[in-house]
Amino acid sequence: ELFDDITRLPSYYPTRTELGILRSRGKEIAGIIPKGAALVEFGAGATTKVRLLLEQCEFRAYVPVDISADFLSAQASALRKDFPDLGVYPVAADFTAPFELPAEIAGLPKVGFFPGSTLGNFEPHEACAFLRSAREILGEGALMIIGVDLEKNERVLYDAYNDAAGVTAKFNLNVLVRINRELGGNLDVSAFMHRSIYNRERHRIEMHLIAKKAQTVRILGRNFSFRPGESIHTESSYKYSLDRFTALARDSGWSVRESWTDRDRMFSVHALAASA
User: Fold this and answer.
1) Tell me: the pLDDT tens digits for 129-159?
2) What is the dihedral of CA 104, 108, 109, 110, to 10 degrees?
């Protein structure tokens, strides 16, 4: 819910920019995808983006993959109602690890879907491993539609991850709330503050939780001490140039068949083909 709030912030460009690309380039994307294919979404979230593909492309089946079975069930029910001719076969699994595709789509062409800037949350070697795994899961002749955030003005990045409304701070600090609730922690959430910085050398936004004071906390029966100013690095979001992403895809067993960006080259959507 907090991330959905983030996507609606004026300063957070990735979601609306990617949606704009999917809308404006939908016919071109549909022209690449074989009719009657199965669409496999890795890490299925809100259905806004996938609905654009389902409306513009002639898919026979949709396979949303996510670790939350309850969430998947609710999303699948809504899609079955809105797309009665579409076979919807949810898979509750960790999409970063190998999983079995439903038998119902065995004979169909496969198209992967990985929207958003989620690929940027992986370290580069992890992104490569994920793309290789996706290629193995989808099989020979598969396609992949993937969203990738691009390098840009650092001020734009700073504002996107340090929003004035403080929603991103709540999202980041919620990690501590979850630790207290689910791991028996005793962290004082008010004793940490959110900070996002751009690491120019590594082409990534880093999200940190900074300790405001010296403190010792207990989690799962262990003590952890913090000095004032010491940080917990909670998340990274890598930004790619088109050339660096093309190289990453090639090293992962894919070739870039087509790439689309918005007018300001803030974000990109790519159609990948599994290399022979």
Assistant:
1) 999 999 999 999 999 999 999 999 999 999 9
2) 0
CA pair distance 177, 170, nearest whole angstrom: 10
Phi, psi (degrees; rounded to nearest 5) at 190 = -70, -10
Q: Determine if the pTM surpasses 0.85.
A: yes
Length of the chain as a residue count: 276
**159: alpha, beta or left? (left if phi > 0; alpha if psi -120 to 50):** alpha
* Pair type for strands 267-274 and 254-261: antiparallel
Side-chain-side CA neighbours of 99 within 13 Å: the count stands at 21
Give me the phi and psi of 34, to 5 degrees please. Answer: -65, 145
Maximum pairwise Cα distance, the chain: 60
DSSP summary character for residue 72: H
- Closest C-alpha to 14, from 256, 238, 233: 238
* High-pLDDT (> 90) share of the chain, %: 92
CB 47 within 8 A of CB 78: yes
**Residues 156-172: tens digit of each pLDDT:** 999 999 999 999 999 99
